[in-house]
Amino acid sequence: MQDGNALAVRLDDGLDEDKASGSREKGLNRVLQILEFLHATQRAIGIGDLAKAVSAPRSTTYTLVRSLVDAGLLEMAGDGNRVYFGKKLYLYGMDYVRGNDLLRRGRQEVDNLSRETGETSELCMLQSGRYTIVHSSPGTRPFRISSATGLQIPLPWTASGRLLLAGFERAVIEDMVSEDDLVLPDGRRLLLDDFIADIATSGAAGYCVTSGLVDAYTKCLAAPVFSAPGKVEATICLVVPIDTSGEKTDDLIAMLRERAARLSITG
Amino acid sequence: MQDGNALAVRLDDGLDEDKASGSREKGLNRVLQILEFLHATQRAIGIGDLAKAVSAPRSTTYTLVRSLVDAGLLEMAGDGNRVYFGKKLYLYGMDYVRGNDLLRRGRQEVDNLSRETGETSELCMLQSGRYTIVHSSPGTRPFRISSATGLQIPLPWTASGRLLLAGFERAVIEDMVSEDDLVLPDGRRLLLDDFIADIATSGAAGYCVTSGLVDAYTKCLAAPVFSAPGKVEATICLVVPIDTSGEKTDDLIAMLRERAARLSITG
DNA sequence: AGTATCTGTCTTGTATAGAGTACATGTGTC
DNA sequence: GACACATGTACTCTATACAAGACAGATACT
Question: Would residue A95 count as lying in a domain?
């Protein structure tokens, strides 16, 4: 592996990584970076490469990985000297689901929706200032739009993003959305003001539709799930072909809004 | 802190906790203890209480929890100043499932089994030297035997435990099984030699049945899932009423073994 | 009012965890 | 065989992360 950068991934987001560089770094932070990196790459990696990837000293990485493997948060992957997430993280994740009504019911509802409509359906939330697909159910189309659970996408690219930011101060939104986030995959550039206006109208309307934003062939319908009046905790959304008729789209939106309302906690 | 033990939970297992006590402790270890404690208690807890529970200084606990909350591994629970597992752990857990064929297929198979037989079915694995219920599907009996995912039970109490230890050295087994583990819930005491003999016969037979071990009313049927010839990676098991007829038991065992074989990777 | 017990933040000294470096071992290539 | 480049472990040295304690603000009970 001469290039080694085949694994290059955006890490410099949630945790501000590099700072003054050369300096000594807290072990816990290194661990958080390791986990974040594994989440981004979605595959097992050798310890040496891992050290490079999170730009940590090799010796440190070895000791940290040993701790994590002993604790079961990481596991040595089958073929020898690679590590990936471990069973413990799965167990903790299940604990989270159990303690979180919204997630549990939301997953169920999303599965139902995709089965009933045949379209890809997703449950989305804000995760440390970023849009995250928390659960996704594929739908039955021959060429289905796949998007992995846990994928993080810039907020302005999505319908759900517009709903999730409802009620936030302008300053907070500016903080969450980087310049890069405003550039769509096809190179087009959104204006921050337009985006903020979209947020307001979507919030008022109680749903949001975006067409051809992340790609040219799909349209995204989303409805907000409230954890308290005015507070959007999550969204459920459907990804449909962009040429879906207006009538059908309206039906799906109505369906989506009804399900979202059922999931909401109307305190 | 004279009492404070309302929250006392067995923590002194995987990680050897107390050691020389008064001494300074690595932040990462404290974090691992915190996660383990939350997993054991299965509920949100105040930061002050958390500090007591893992016997860490309050100030340290505050900083660690802040880091973990910022990273999304923990979340402040709804009502104010309590913490519990966060979304990130769920996402990491899903990554684990995705990267782990056996777990993914095993969950599926267990769900099928419990639907087809109506009995409680479980997927079990060794997790840092302890028996762990990795996935469990309830079955349809009016009074069903419930056992939570992630629950850890002494190996000698279970049929799966006997299969999971197949092929291990006697010394290793002695190391994994404490004196307490040999005492059943009703007070009866198993002999280590008998247990080790059970392991051998179960391994040879390719299945294991235990009756009335954890409680007087149930019988546990288990079959091994292999990750390589001779290496037991997991078990699938059925929990049935103790008075299930011999004939029906035999049928279920045959079914179980067939499913387990299908899950196995026969290198 | 006074007392007691929380929570959350901040500051300071020092034990120690992390960084750097070296070395033994393994593997592939020329 | 010599070289380049991995992995995994072991060793010091010192910058700093942890621990302890003080502090202000809440809440609660007498």
Answer: no
- Mean pLDDT of successive 10-residue segments in chain A (267 residues)? 34 37 78 93 90 91 93 85 92 91 91 91 87 87 61 88 91 88 90 93 94 87 89 92 92 94 79
Are A35 and B99 within 8 A, CB to CB? no
Residue B10 has pLDDT above 60, yes or no: no
End residue of a domain, out of A31, A62, A90: A90
Residues of A with Cβ-Cβ distance to B74 under 8 angstroms: none
Q: What's the domain count of chain B? A: 2
And the tokens for A79? 């073929």
Between B34 and B229, the higher pLDDT residue:
B34
Token pair of B213 as six digits = 């071990």
Contacts of A176 (CB under 8 A, 6+ apart): A129, A130, A155, A165, A168
Asked if residue A145 and residue A30 are part of one domain, the reply reads no
Sheet of A45-46: strand order equals A45-46, A82-85, A74-77
- Can you name the residues that pair with B125 across neighbouring β-strands? B132
pLDDT greater than 70 at residue B121: yes
Q: Within the 55-74 window of chain A, which residues sit less than 8 Å (CB to CB) from chain B?
A: 64, 67, 70-73
Phi-psi region for residue A139, left (φ > 0), alpha (ψ -120 to 50) or beta? left
- Chain A residue whose CA is closest to B134: A91
| A138, A119 Cβ separation under 8 angstroms | no
How many angstroms is C1' of C4 away from CA of B83? 25
Note whether A128 contacts B: Cβ–Cβ < 8 A. Answer: yes
Close Cβ partners of B190 (under 8 Å, ≥ 6 residues apart): B156, B182, B183, B184
Is B93 within a domain? no
Close Cβ partners of A92 (under 8 Å, ≥ 6 residues apart)? B35, B38, B39, B85, B89, B92, B93
Q: Based on the fold, state whether residues B80 and B108 are members of the same structural domain.
A: no
Range of the domain at B171: 100-263
Is B131 found in the same domain as B75?
no
Tell me what percent of chain B is helix, strand and coil, each rounded to the nearest 5: 45, 20, 35
Q: What is the pLDDT of residue A36?
A: 93
Residue A29, token pair as written in the block: 């932070």
Residues B175 and B225 in one domain: yes
